[in-house]
Design goal:
Length: 839
Amino acid sequence: GTARKERAPMHGSSDERTRTGMSPESLKRAFVDSMFYVQARYWEVATPHDLYMAAAYTVRDRMLERWIRTAETYRKADARTVCYLSAEYLLGPQLGNNLINLGIVDSARQGARDLGIDLQEILDQEPEPGLGNGGLGRLAACYLDSLATLSIPAIGYGIRYEHGIFDQKIVDGWQVEDCDLWLTNGNPWEIPRPLLRYPVRFGGHTEPYTDEHGRFRVRWVPELDLYGMAYDTPVLGFGNDNTNLLRLWHATAGRSFDLQAFHKGDYYGAVNAKVGAENITKVLYPNDEPEVGKELRLKQQYFFVSCSLQDMVRVHLQHAPNLEGFHERFAAQLNDTHPSIAVAELMRLCLDEHGMDWERAWEITRRTFAYTNHTLLPEALETWPVELFGRLLPRHLEIIYEINARFLDELRMRYPFDPERVARMSLIEEGPVRRVRMAHLATVGSFAVNGVAAIHSELVKSTVLRDFHELWPEKFHNITNGVTPRRFIQLSNPDLCGIITDLAGPGWARDAENLRTLEPHADDAAFQQRWQAMKRAAKERLAARIREATGAVVDPQSLFDIQVKRIHEYKRQHLNLLHIVALYHRIKQGTDSDPTPRTFVFGGKAAPGYFMAKLIIKLIHSVAEVINRDPEVNQRLRVVFVPNFNVKNAECIYPAADLSEQISTAGKEASGTGNMKFSMNGALTIGTLDGANVEIRDAVGHENFFLFGLTVAEVERTLAEGYRPWEYYRSHDELREVIDLLRSGLFSHGDPDLFRPLTDSLLQHDPYLLLADYPAYVEAQARAGDAFRDPAGWTRMSILNAARTGFFSSDRAIREYCRNIWQVEPMPVSLAAGNGSVP
Ligand code: OAK
């Protein structure tokens, strides 16, 4: 793009302003206009979807001036820019959030009401862009919101999956996956950029040659080329005028496919290959851990990384003659190892396409990237077979070998008598199948590495990247995750938003530390009443939603005890179930001493190929079925599973929780972010010392948190000493009875084998130590149940949780990234300045 020299016509003149005005009157006019000129509908035949589209276009128009002005401001200032590289963005619905960030919720509601429309009904129409699996993808979306809010020049780069995370249906208690169709009815938030395309190549071979200066070089002769086309989505800041860019890449086939047909005369074969190329961005892999050796997944990763880096290079070369200084213009964050092939790709661009020498290319590369680790689970650490890697990306494999050769030389010099250490640190895992270790590539190729909660960052340093930490201690950081208070308080919980705004003023949503103004009111009876009414209303809304989705009736007076997150053995939804069955058993035995009525709510998707996780979903439904229809227990206990946990459902769930279940085995949950969303909405946590729970407990006060369970050190010791779960089963009567009930067929219509895989796993291996933690968990649950029977005491704790969790705002997290990692400064955008020139 060449910059236009003459003053371009700008929107923002006074008549344009009326067109994009924010009053109910102008919103209404624009909405009616969009219905006609964009949706091509007249009022009487407009469907709810038409209403949504017209509303979305009305709001989008109001974002564009900010967006364009932002691009202009950043460009003129030649601003240092953060590029967030992530294979996932779990954005959730856009309309409500954009109304909030534009500050026009009330105007929009008023305008809609004038037209006889309920704004909520319009909001409910929006399918959500579920371009992520869980925590990592949602974190990326929260960070985009905070980057824009803090006026940081930033671009989010990712993949425009045609099908995001699957829709979860429940059939006879089992999860059934249904295709996500978020794009079918059109996506009003994205702007296709058909001219912004980059070639991406795969396969073929490399060959050496001598360049015009007589230097040795390598050329990649690929077999296939496709194109990545940009789709841009504006990301509004809150309370400012900055509007950043989320750029997602869509794959289309390139010319090589047509040429193949021409040469081989195989027209249908070529068309087929073309379809294959376009498959690259078809579907999100629905696992929250990598699927071993899936070729298409590696293609996806390289595809989006290559497009993104080419785009960054293009922008850089608008301001500079060559790639020197690339690392000064950009800080590129690798969201886990999924984009870590970027290290080799930037090397390739510098070396092969821009003629740089190795040392300089390596310096620029290492000063560009920073890497965030999101998991310690060994099965989730990405490695790719060298054979596959070399077949798809022969040049990149060569570059990785060269990086490794130089790195290993350095290591041998430093540790001459420690060949084992050198082998452990190699980028290549030697074994029957040689593999590329992506976490090592990311660590070696980055200037900073961070974990996502204090305890997790310590574990990164002492376990998976221990040798690297010993080599480069200064490279390692912690940045505890955060979540956006705009979506997870203001949008999800309007009553809480009203309470906070009345006390703290409207500034809290940009400065979440202001939540502390709630603290002195924690014991105030009138304030407590308002707080209880807010919780009560949120519980009623969730109860209505549950009834609609499942038919189950739940009592908003009962304690809402909620666990929503991906289903995984380490997250221990089945520990929660063991407690539920224990309560059931006590009621049946007449030995119950905790009369607190409870509603247990579960939600979460299982990876389609993860049998145990799917069996846990079935078990939740089976226990629910028995408990909910037994009149002897169902006055006291109810169990429900909310199908299809996604951002939209989550917004209704977090505000309704009394108790938040954060019960992973210590050391397994990197951070958790749901834990923060619950706590901000006044739920108390029952949890282990894992991930961000540790910091949440310190922030809210130990007396306002139900702690239980083994610590990381105790988990390690227990396993090292030869853990025998069977002994817990033998020596703990209630635990034994609970497990025996699961094995009795009571919950499986008489089939004692249905849940065998689960109970066998618990009794024989129990790798996540459910049985070891069971007694402490049940005891902590009893404390929670008792505490709930004192409404004033509980409400006080609930208020203090919300008041003290400002630290967990993603704004704080992004400030830390800016200061400690990216070294980037805010660049505020002003709509007021310099506009108004229309020819
Ligand atoms: C997904 C795929 C591969 C590796 C990690 C993930 C992932 O989602 N990890 C999660 O990231 C969240 C954000 O940092 C953390 O809060 C979760 O604890 C972690 O499991």
